[in-house]
């Protein structure tokens, strides 16, 4: 690390502070935006524009009884929600928010992100299994299958970007997008990565592991209080993470015209993708479980492979 | 760097022992994940960050998840644990223990006879791994590919189901 230690700690602290606040703020943003798109008011009573609903929600989560069911496997039950938070927060380590504002620029940044997101699958599986409840178990099984299969396309779709930039480091990837943002040459890769990202964060329309209407709440139906809160915050952090990754990999990260500082460009782009996530939730119905798997393995996987091969061939020709 | 190597190795060995001795399958698999993570750290300290990342993505992230998936479907109970205990009588340990002793002796001999290999921090990046895989080890890659293909064909064969048409009046099945 070239920076001096206090600066380094400052970046870590700043990133953590901003992220946790964003995750909490997303609760309000999501409810308000959903309401807007569904032609109703949403929470608008507490404070200006209903902003204090965030405070109320967090207070409620903190003070709720933290109950561990007697039939649950206690150690695993407590462990599961921490895994989701740890893995998502660790992924943010490699994201370049602006030149110099990055916790650590690993030369395997992309792979580190993939590794951490694959660890996130454990929280669902273990949470569902430890709850010792058939709905939770069903949700966990669906979640495991969904996350494993969509990770494959996610990783392969990323490799197109890695081929074009010739590096696994996210800073290098952003720098190599100076002329042209990668979403133009890698449009298929971008679409697949985004779909896989939605599935990976198990957001609607791919929220099959929790599917309220059929599985009560899937893998976290036994969770309450702050343990549920961790799953909840983990989900919003996951959305933020995927938005950050999409922006970094395909939309030039902090790059943009000079009239705004780089960090503002980054935040604007990430904000736009957060809105798309919410809009997806507001507008799309949930597919059936087998449809989801079929769509993944029969459409996305061949498309990703073709995309990867064509990209590799073009890179090889230009060399 | 050397200290991290030894700590990670110790964790890997301890976690692997816990995998073998634990009767609760899911807990054993959790230790297996810890063991893989420790091995990834070992790779990292030995200067192979690419391999470390792949270790986490493929072993800890995908393969163990699949194993857990299968275990959850098996729905193991205490009876199965008892049954396993009867299978693992002390007598069955003799053969493997003898063979492992020979291996241990060989390992000890190698460690004593050779100079201790030092940890060199020459990072092996993705490009070198790729060149090695598709250069000197091409045959190995192809053999792995064939093995995986056989696995896929086998899985398809086992998983294929007859399409069942359920109707109020007639029930027939077609392939």
UniProtKB/TrEMBL annotation, chain A:
Pfam families (alphabetical): NADHdh (PF00146)
Domain of life, per lineage: Bacteria
Organism: Pontibacter ruber
Function: NDH-1 shuttles electrons from NADH, via FMN and iron-sulfur (Fe-S) centers, to quinones in the respiratory chain. The immediate electron acceptor for the enzyme in this species is believed to be ubiquinone. Couples the redox reaction to proton translocation (for every two electrons transferred, four hydrogen ions are translocated across the cytoplasmic membrane), and thus conserves the redox energy in a proton gradient. This subunit may bind ubiquinone.
Membrane-topology descriptor: Multi-pass membrane protein
Sequence similarity: Belongs to the complex I subunit 1 family.
Catalytic activity: a quinone + NADH + 5 H(+)(in) = a quinol + NAD(+) + 4 H(+)(out)
Keywords from the named record: Cell membrane, Membrane, NAD, Oxidoreductase, Quinone, Translocase, Transmembrane, Transmembrane helix, Ubiquinone
Name of this protein: NADH-quinone oxidoreductase subunit H
From TrEMBL, chain B:
Keywords per UniProt: Cell membrane, Membrane, NAD, Oxidoreductase, Quinone, Transmembrane, Transmembrane helix
UniProt-listed InterPro entries: NADH_UbQ/plastoQ_OxRdtase_su6, Nuo/plastoQ_OxRdtase_6_NuoJ
Localisation: Cell membrane
A GO MF label: NADH dehydrogenase (quinone) (non-electrogenic) activity
Pfam family, one: Oxidored_q3
The EC number(s) this enzyme carries: 7.1.1.-
Reaction(s) catalysed (UniProt annotation): a quinone + NADH + 5 H(+)(in) = a quinol + NAD(+) + 4 H(+)(out)
Membrane topology, from the record: Multi-pass membrane protein
Protein name stated in the entry: NADH-quinone oxidoreductase subunit J
Main location: membrane
Transmembrane segments: 6-23, 30-50, 56-74, 94-113, 133-158
Family, as annotated: Belongs to the complex I subunit 6 family.
Domain of life of the organism encoding this protein: Bacteria
Enzyme class, first EC level, given as a word: translocase
Function comment: NDH-1 shuttles electrons from NADH, via FMN and iron-sulfur (Fe-S) centers, to quinones in the respiratory chain. Couples the redox reaction to proton translocation (for every two electrons transferred, four hydrogen ions are translocated across the cytoplasmic membrane), and thus conserves the redox energy in a proton gradient.
């Amino acid at each position: 690390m070239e920076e001096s230690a206090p600066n380094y700690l400052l970046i870590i602290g700043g990133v953590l502070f901003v992220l946790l606040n964003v995750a909490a703020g997303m609760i309000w943003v999501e409810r308000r935006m959903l309401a807007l798109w569904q032609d109703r008011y949403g929470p608008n009573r507490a404070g200006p524009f209903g902003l204090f609903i965030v405070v109320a929600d967090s207070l409620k989560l903190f003070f709720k009884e933290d109950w561990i069911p007697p039939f649950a496997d206690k150690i695993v039950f407590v462990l599961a929600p921490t895994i989701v938070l740890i893995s998502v927060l660790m992924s943010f380590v490699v994201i370049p928010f602006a030149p110099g504002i990055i916790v650590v620029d690993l030369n395997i940044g992309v792979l580190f992100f993939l590794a951490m997101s694959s660890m996130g699958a454990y929280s669902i599986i273990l949470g569902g299994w430890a709850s010792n409840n058939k709905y939770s178990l069903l949700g966990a099984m669906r979640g495991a299958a969904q996350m494993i299969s969509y990770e494959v396309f996610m990783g392969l779709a990323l490799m197109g970007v890695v081929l074009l930039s010739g590096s696994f480091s996210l800073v290098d990837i952003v720098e190599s997008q100076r002329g042209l943002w990668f979403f133009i040459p890698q449009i298929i890769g971008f679409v697949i990565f985004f779909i896989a990202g939605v599935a990976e964060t198990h957001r609607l329309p791919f929220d099959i592991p929790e599917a309220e209407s059929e599985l009560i709440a899937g893998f976290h139906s036994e969770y309450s209080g702050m343990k549920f809160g961790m799953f909840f915050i983990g989900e919003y952090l996951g959305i933020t993470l995927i938005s950050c990754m999409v922006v970094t990999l395909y939309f030039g990260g902090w790059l943009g015209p000079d009239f705004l500082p780089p960090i503002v460009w980054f935040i604007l782009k990430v904000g736009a993708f957060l809105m798309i996530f919410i809009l997806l939730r507001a507008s799309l119905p949930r597919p059936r479980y087998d449809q989801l798997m079929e769509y993944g393995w029969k459409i996305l996987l061949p498309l990703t492979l073709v995309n990867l091969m064509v990209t590799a061939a073009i890179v090889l020709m230009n060399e | 760097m050397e200290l991290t190597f030894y700590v990670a190795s110790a964790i890997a060995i301890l976690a692997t022992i816990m995998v073998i001795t634990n009767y609760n399958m899911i807990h054993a698999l959790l230790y297996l994940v810890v063991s893989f993570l420790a091995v990834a750290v070992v790779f990292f300290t030995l200067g192979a960050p690419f391999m470390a990342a792949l270790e986490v993505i493929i072993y800890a992230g995908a393969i163990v998840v699949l194993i857990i998936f299968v275990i959850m479907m098996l729905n193991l109970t205490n009876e199965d644990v008892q049954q396993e205990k009867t299978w693992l009588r002390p007598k069955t340990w003799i053969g493997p223990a003898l063979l492992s002793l020979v291996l241990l002796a060989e390992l000890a001999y190698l460690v004593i006879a050779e100079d201790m290999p030092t940890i060199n921090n020459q990072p092996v990046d993705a490009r070198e791994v790729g060149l090695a895989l598709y250069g000197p080890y091409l045959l190995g890659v192809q053999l792995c590919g064939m093995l995986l293909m056989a696995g896929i064909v086998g899985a398809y064969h086992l998983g294929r189901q007859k399409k069942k048409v359920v109707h109020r009046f007639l029930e027939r099945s077609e392939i």
